[in-house]
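This follows on from our talk about sequence and fold. Can you supply me with one protein entry, sequence and fold together? Could you add the entry underneath, on a fresh line?
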Amino acid sequence: MSRFSLRSPNSPFAPVITGCVYFAAASFTVSISRFEGGLAFIWIANAFLMAELLTTRMSYWPRAVFACALASAVATALFGIGPAAAVPMAFINVSESLIVAAICRYFLKDDIVTGSVRPLVVFILALCGVADIVTGLAAASVASATTPVGFSASWLQWYAGHALGGLTCTPVVILLLQGEWSRWLRDTPRAVKIEALILLALFTLVTVHVFYWARYPMLFAPMLPLVLIAFRVGHVGAAASIVILAVIGGVATMSDTGPLMLIPLSTGERVLAFQFYLALSFLLSMPVAAELNGRRRLFQMLQESESRFRAIAEHSGDVVLNVNLAGVIEYASPSALEQMGCAPALLVGQGVTDLADARDREMVRAICQSALAHPGSVHQAEFRPLTALSDLDCCEMVSRAVVDERGQPVGVVSMIRDISRHKARQRALQQVAARDALTGADSRRAFLDKLDAEMLRAADGARSSLLLMDLDHFKSVNDRYGHGGGDRVLTGFVQAIQPELRDGDSIGRLGGEEFAILLVDCDRRAAAQLCDRLRQRLSAPIRVNDKDDAIAVTFSAGLVQLNGGSTRSAMLEAADRALYDAKHSGRNCLRQAA
């Protein structure tokens, strides 16, 4: 759809000019087309008012409507069906334009009706499907009461004249008011202008031949150059062709000349028939021109998008890939050589999954399929690249579907970047977070994660144990030797214990002087024996300062064998109760949970 800026006439003379143009159009059409003493068979004044309302802000509407209502009343009184009908006909005329403008503004917001097919369809339905039906009933009631023409004939005259006049003239006037004609003359290359003039001259010659010289009815003849002009020149050329056809054909028909004279009808009926022919010509050319105009804008946007894409892809450190629906790479950016050690030309024609290690290929395929299934959303995954292509550890792929004009996916664009350093830093941070900074034991969170994993194994029948330990009289150590001495005791405690632990066992610091040991595949009995060995290792004093002061350390412990049918919290509480019993049993001992 074509966006345009709405006009906002601020001059006090603007409504006067609008009213004068409306009066001139209304007076002219009434004077030449009241063939049967009733309503005019041709009506283009409302086309001007509709175009004025559709191209201006709503703040200007009251002034424009009042000026045109006054002009309509004067024209009807002087040249139309008389003073008695002047006021009601003025109200009916401006109501038609207001209905069309209100419907188009509601459904199209600020879209110009000549920009693309949808706005044009909305305008046609608003005019022919709503406004002219409703206002035609009111106009026929007034006309049948003030003229010799009956209600049905009056309604048909109104509907035909207003609908056909509005269809053919409103888009032309909109183009004029929006400056499309002058813009086309200013921005169009000279060669295109010459081509347009030649085509319009050919169209004029064909139209003159059909309406003045041809011996046979050849109303179809102007259609070919009309469509050709719509294709080559666009909506401005199509509008110019409609004006040429209206002027030449209208003058000929009203002068009792041309192919319509072969139809045994009255002059008014021939005029209606010509307007119907003109409307069909409009419906043939303007939608085609509007669709081509939309496609030109789309093509221009695609060219701009392609230029931006190429600039980004060719100068980006990331690898950019275009992948078709079958998962085959159709384009690879130059950075593929630096990042993956493979020339882009060698990647084209290969499957995108071939870039990944065999273990991650299904995930890469799933990401591409997910992007195709959900166009508009971004899909991200990490994968291990094929070692034959690069020495990278890990890559990140961000994919999004490419869609056609119908919104259907036609492929995927993916960006691949090296995140090996990021993953290495992430692993280093995880390792730091998993270790107690003072003692080197597992942190509380890391130890609890290991306990959760072992609880799952216990649910499958593994026999493991949890040992909860607390240093005896640790507060007195801090009081006597300070926190530095206490830190040395904690560190020495862990260093003394670790040699007794097997692969898979873990020691964690839960807080302060409280530690926990996870003994994998170790039942109560074996865990109790380990506890005795730990006590023996701690019989050697631990240095607490640089003066060679050393103290012997003892601990109290609570032991529980993991129950896979229970929870982590329940196991910790059971071990904690056993530890509490050990502390109140004289310390330096082990108690097992019931």
